[in-house]
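User: Sequence in, structure out. Go.
Assistant: Echoing your sequence, followed by the structure tokens.
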Amino acid sequence: MTQPLRPVLQQNIDLLKQMFGNSIDLYAKPVKVMGIDCCLCMFEGLSTIERLWVVMLDMLSEQNIHPQDGNQLFSYIQTQTDLPLESVPVEDFEQLRVRLTSGATVMLIDGCCKAVVLSTQSMQFRSVQEPSGEGNVRGSHEGFCDLLRINISLVRRLIRKETLTIETVMCGQRTQTEVAILYDRALASPQFVQAIRKKIENIQIPILFDTSYLAPFLQKGSFSFFQEVGYTERPVTACAKICEGKVVVMVNGSPFVMILPYFFNEHFQSLDDYATKAYFASFIRVLKYTAFFLAVLLPGLFVSIAEYTPELFPPQLLYKIASAETATPLPLFLEMILVIILLEIIREAGLRLPKPIGHSVSLVAAVIMGDAAVKAGILSTPIVITAAMTTISMFVIPSLYEPATVLRILFVLAGGLFGPFGILGLLFLMLLSISGMHSFGLPYTSPFVPWGNGALRDGIFRISWKELAQHPFDVNELPGGTEKYE
């Protein structure tokens, strides 16, 4: 149980230093304010000393007030000054820890069991920049940063309705990370919000540095290649999801916010879809769906046809594939898996190295190694071309890169070992798995399975804004399962 503040100033100072182990960045400066002993406490780097002393000098310039004890000084500062104070004072050491680590300055007063909280936050953070993973041509180019309060302000600036509600929860036993839950109380289901809040409050996790840490605790326990939650770095996207009745979860220190619930078709939507003509947006969406199935199925189909039904290839192509394969030492499906793994190694190397070196490594590995491997007869040209085409196709849907990569290898194994029946069987299992998923009680394949009105308005195709504005999407209109909001 937390300890309340003591009436003796020195006892509070000693207990505070003991709590933080005499940490070097803890600033505790004894001062006299209007004749009463006080102590200003803050963490250097989270609060600014310059702003703190400007505030204090303004207070010290008052010469007509002479409080008799600490309680009178607290009452005067809290109720009769224009200082930037928080409305709720500190009364125990747990509240004192929360305020200090959030960047505020706390003034302990001798003879008073309450402390004044001054808003002097001045944290260093990455400025608001364009996100690197969600490119768009039109619309806002702002992206979330790492500081929670800045991210909340970006959403509040775009949604100015009084129904926008923001709640905070502490999560992480060792880090005590602040988690924000954002929703529109006029659109979001109260039962759904309550279920999400309860799950986050009951999460037992030692550390929390990113929203993705929360995903396994919020989703159902059954295994799936696809996630029931979505992520975005764009305030505009987060606001659009809030206006659909969804819930957005933010974690302090992470620029990626979580969207609940999230559906399969939303991976193929982007901000530019709503800034371009409806026919072109529909064309791009069809292109994205095609790219996804190419990325997953093409290597396996190529291996299956070449091994089991080569007569399906045109004669000219069949001769070239056969001559290329006779010069390589590995079976076709093992060769395809080797190329896929090599491409993933090259991608990972380029991603983790510093950018100038990463680009050079990717270029050298892709051009020189690939060309040398083909000329040496280790790899065949058709295999390299097929793997390169599928890798480029996966970049069209970056949010599905992880499941598409693993599924691509599984389809190659299925096609190489079991032929066309293996491809059809695995495809059936994949579609069955996606159709059976529920995102917090709502079908993951909504609005396609079960069929809903939104499938024609804003599914694979998009209608014009004039018609779309008359029937805006609302997540509460979707048919839910029996486990809805569990």
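User: And one key feature?
Assistant: The mean pLDDT is 84.
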